[in-house]
Design goal:
Elements (H helix, E strand, L loop, with lengths): L3 E6 L2 H9 L9 E3 L12 E2 L1 H5 L18 E3 L3 H16 L7 E5 L2 E5 L3 H5 L3 H16 L3 E6 L2 H11 L7 E4 L1 H8 L13 H8 L6 H6 L2 H8 L3 H8 L7 H6 L6 E12 L1 H21 L2 E12 L7 E11 L2 H15 L6 E9 L2 E2 L11 H21 L16 H4 L2 E2 L2 E2 L6
Helix pairs in contact: 3-5, 13-14
Length: 421
């Protein structure tokens, strides 16, 4: 029987900030957030003592009760990535990279099936050894879920481990049915969102047991092919393995960039940001030796005053020409974006990604201009890679409402700085 571990680093960002300050994450009130974004800024992490006060993780600053004293730490994404990589190195002491699936910066799945006999240990002992190693090396507390498949390991981590003094939970199919079939809220279960829960509630289903009792045809009518995952998970079944995840190849290829703007933007200012984003996305496909066959645009408006707009458009064959791609995006923006509403989100994508070998030409193609453009793009890429993203900026990047210069200093949309502030 297979054995999987799902290991999570407890309140990771907040724990890192505490450790770097010589503080105990389990005894310190600390919030990782950027107050410069206002009281509505999201807290990326809070320490366990704050959670015990009833404060929710990923809350907004204004939601923290006034009487609570706490330390505010600016996000340092580069530092968190370094610590995460260090902890990944600890996992590699026990299992091969082929048996690890990195789920997020602070969470990993490990297939330890063949290692139990190798180390002559049971799953609990191996889990404890690994999380003790993480703590002794980094002073960051880890929790672990043990399961006979990936789904059960994740649920054991999310629900069972929280109630265990040693931070380790275990589930097999029998224990899952016995202890979690009637667990509520159902949204505690991995991959069941509030939207899915609402749709299940239409049929009087509020727990996993309810899913096992309804006619499957109803579920397939409501959720389509995704009903299979709901049904399997309701029984504690998950056929997918880490090996299959590693071997998975997407049938459709695309690249995308998106950002939530720092404030409400007017139409013309949003168009400027769109051009900046397209500029960077084209550099990315040139650097990777790729070409695109279509463009996609999504615009979100402030406070959802109206439904988002956007759409997609096919290009005339595969191309990596900035002019062609930029023109397509600008035309799509002009055609679909509402002029009189404040814009807060912009998302762009290039679809039909292929190797640049398949770039299309026609009788009207100016090969000399294309060659010159590509050489220019490659020179920009070389300079940026050598001297940093902000080593070359265009005039539009210096405009008051431009975002590229600031975003180049971020990782994952958050501060990447090395120094605490």
């Amino acid at each position: 029987m297979a054995t999987y571990l799902c290991i999570d680093l407890k309140s990771f960002y907040a724990s890192v900030e505490c450790v770097l300050r010589g503080l105990d994450p389990l005894k310190t009130n600390l919030v990782v957030a950027d107050p410069s974004r206002g009281n509505g800024a999201i807290c990326l992490a809070i320490t366990p003592p704050m959670k015990k006060l009833g404060i929710k993780n990923r809350c907004r600053i204004f939601e923290i009760p006034k009487g609570v004293n706490y330390i505010t730490a600016l996000p340092r994404m580069k530092k968190y990535m370094e610590i995460s990589a260090m902890i990944y190195g600890i996992y590699l002491k026990y299992v091969s990279k082929d048996d690890i699936h990195v789920y997020s910066i602070d969470e990993c799945f490990l297939d330890v099936t063949k290692y139990l006999s190798l180390y002559q240990m049971d799953a609990y002992s191996l889990s404890k050894k690994i999380i003790d190693d993480v703590y002794n090396t980094t002073h960051i507390t880890a929790t672990a879920g043990i399961g006979t498949n990936l789904f059960l390991a994740k649920v054991a981590l999310d629900i069972t481990a929280k109630h265990a003094k040693d931070n380790i939970g275990y589930l097999n199919e029998e224990l899952f049915k016995e202890n979690l079939w009637h667990h509520t809220p159902i949204t505690d279960i991995w991959n069941i969102s509030r939207g899915i829960a609402t749709r299940l509630a239409k049929y009087g289903i509020y727990d996993l047991y309810g899913i096992t009792q309804i006619d499957e045809a109803i579920l397939y009518k409501e959720f389509g092919v995704n009903a299979l995952f709901l049904i399997d998970h309701a029984y504690g079944i998950e056929p997918c393995t880490i090996e299959e995840i590693h071997n998975y190849k997407s049938k459709s290829n695309s690249l995308s960039h998106s950002q939530i703007l720092f404030e409400d933007y007017k139409y013309d200012d949003a168009l400027l940001v769109l051009k900046e984003m397209v500029d960077l996305l084209v550099l990315e496909i040139v650097e990777k030796g790729l070409a695109a066959k279509s463009v996609g645009l999504g615009i979100g408006y402030s406070k959802d005053v109206i439904k988002g707009t956007g759409g997609s458009a096919k290009l005339n064959g595969a191309t990596q020409s900035k002019k062609v791609i930029m023109d397509a995006f600008v035309n799509l923006f002009i055609r679909t974006t509402k002029k009189d509403y404040p814009i807060r989100r912009i998302g762009i994508s290039l679809g039909g990604i292929v190797d640049e070998y398949y770039v299309s030409f026609d009788l009207f193609t100016d090969h000399e201009a294309l060659g010159k453009e590509k050489r220019m793009q490659e020179a920009i890429i070389d300079i940026k890679n050598k001297y940093g993203k902000n080593s070359i900026l265009k005039a539009m990047d210096l405009a008051p409402k431009a975002t590229t210069k600031k975003r180049n200093m971020l990782i994952g949309g958050h501060n990447s700085g090395e120094e605490a502030r």
